[in-house]
Amino acid sequence: MTEAADRDQQFHELRPQLFSLAYRMLGTRADAEDVVQEAYIRWQSAGAEEVRSPKSYLSTVVARLALDGLKAAHRRRETYVGPWLPEPIIQPPGTTSIEMAESLSVAFLHVLESLSPPERVAFLLREVFDAGYAEVAAALGTTEVYGRQIVARARKRIRERRPRFAIDREWQSSVLREFLSACATGNVSQLTTLLSDHVVLYADGGGKVLAALNPIFGADRVIRFLLGVTRKAPTFRVEFAEVNGSVGAVILADSRPDTVVTLDLTANGRIANVYLVRNPDKLPQRIT
């Protein structure tokens, strides 16, 4: 096997992990694909003396490229119309759960938006992809000591925003089905039972379709919003799906995806957050 062919094979084997890393950092498929493609170009031209470990080298390259992309994305998101949510990755129900699904969920990626670009890169490399602090420092272009400080700061902020606890997958599915049924039938009593008192609803329309321009706080306001939207909605149907490795649903109007719905639950199984992705640029053209 030639050196070029060997490098192609090594990259092909690592590509799923590299895409996974880039997507978690950037939140969109296209941006993640661009980063991975650029990493491939750099990988092909890298000197042997630069590559002690293909995985370490490529992860560092992807992280550096994603860091630049994150800085640009943060500037764009400052003028984004309404709440920004990640582009959902949708798979048919029953699909094998995506590796490290919890760290891929819409809820988790939304929490990551509270971090600065360096904090997000450092946290993902260390806490999700188990990179060493030397790799974190190399990706950020800083010292290992400062890399540790960034990771610790990011870890603290994530834990404050998203405490860790286990929620049964079947319960998640049951709550989602009850929630969608209650919305469709206008069952206020059922919605009140399902929603946490402090529930927050985020709707990402990107200024291209109707959506709440700000997060909606509190069960009463969320219920009024949901019932108002449902009454005005055209005939629709629901397709359940794997969304970012977790339980989700796609609402279709005229057989075209209109909204992707995911929920984040509290430790006692009530709905803490509702995420509605409606921006057509983030939705698939059809569900297979």
How would you describe this structure to a colleague?
This protein has helices spanning 3-26, 29-45, 54-77, 106-112, 117-128, 133-140, 144-161, 169-185, 188-194, 219-232, and strands spanning 90-91, 195-204, 216-217, 236-243, 246-253, 256-265, 271-277. The chain is an alpha+beta fold and 288 residues long. The protein is elongated and about 65 Å long. Helix 1 runs antiparallel to helix 2 and helix 5 (117-128) crosses helix 7 (144-161). A seven-stranded mixed β-sheet has the order 1-4-5-6-7-2-3.
Give a short summary of the structure.
This protein is 51% helix and 16% strand. With 288 residues, it is α+β, with helices and mostly antiparallel strands. The longest helix has 24 residues, at 3-26.
